[in-house]
Every structure is written in C-alpha cells, then in structure tokens.
Specification:
The chain has helices at about 5-20, 25-35, 40-55, 60-65, 80-95, 100-115, 120-135. It is mostly helical. The relative contact order is 0.13.
C-alpha cells in the first residue's frame, strides 16, 4: 500500500466519521482497519495518527478552514466530502512534516475522485490560503 492509498483510506474513515458522528473514536478506527483488511504497519500508524491528530486539533483545523472561506460562506455549506479532505490536508500541513505541495496535490486528487465538479478548485484554494498564511507566521 503506497502513501496515496494509505491517505485515501484515512480520508474514507474521516468521511465516514463525519457522517456517523460516532462516539469512541479509537474503537471506530480499529473497526475500520479490521473491516478494510489493512495490514501494513505504516498504514495502520498513519491512519491512527491522522484520525486522532485531527480530533485532538479539530478546533484549530476548523478555524483554519473557516477563516479561509469567502466571506459569504459558512462551514456548514461545505460538503462532508470536501470537509473531510480539508481536515486531513490541513492536519498534514500544520502538524506533520510533509511538503505542502505533496499534501495539496494529494488533496486535489482526492477531490477530483470523490468530490463534485468544483471540489478540486475549492480544496486547492483553501489549502493555498492556509499555506500562504502559515508562511507568513
């Protein structure tokens, strides 16, 4: 399983958690890993880190999304699919040492595959703003 496939699995889990709003996150992660037959140690570690890291930093991640939306947009207006992609990408940009170009490229690919027609541009725009903002800090 390569890094893109692992990231895609993490995204799918984030999306399903976004829809279900389940309690006991660790149990949900274990169940997902088991039911999707994810055996790779790297994949399991990455998925757990991403899910738990996003949960731990969710207020800051949501804040990053909200402040980079156009003024007439509210976070509730973003599709769950796009929101899931953004959460994962912002987590990687802010908290992991993954080059932002890689993160944005992977997020845009996920948006092309799973989102609506304008998702890739929307995701790209938000993430570009987040990166620009981070460089200014």
């Amino acid at each position: 399983m390569n890094r893109s496939e692992i990231r895609e699995q993490a995204f799918k889990l984030i999306y399903s958690l976004e829809i279900q709003k389940q309690e006991n996150l660790e149990e949900q992660v274990e169940l997902y890993i088991e039911s999707n037959n994810i055996k790779s140690k790297d994949a399991v570690e990455y998925i757990k880190d991403a899910i738990l890291g996003i949960e731990k930093n969710k207020d800051e991640i949501i804040n990053n999304i909200e402040k980079n939306l156009k003024s007439d947009w509210k976070i509730e207006r973003i599709s769950k699919m796009d929101l899931s992609i953004l959460k994962l990408a912002i987590y990687e940009i802010k908290y992991k040492e993954i080059p932002f170009k890689v993160v944005i490229n992977e997020a845009v690919e996920l948006a092309k595959k799973y989102g609506e027609d304008n998702s890739k541009n929307f995701v790209n725009g938000i993430l570009a703003s987040v990166v620009k903002e981070q460089k200014e800090d």
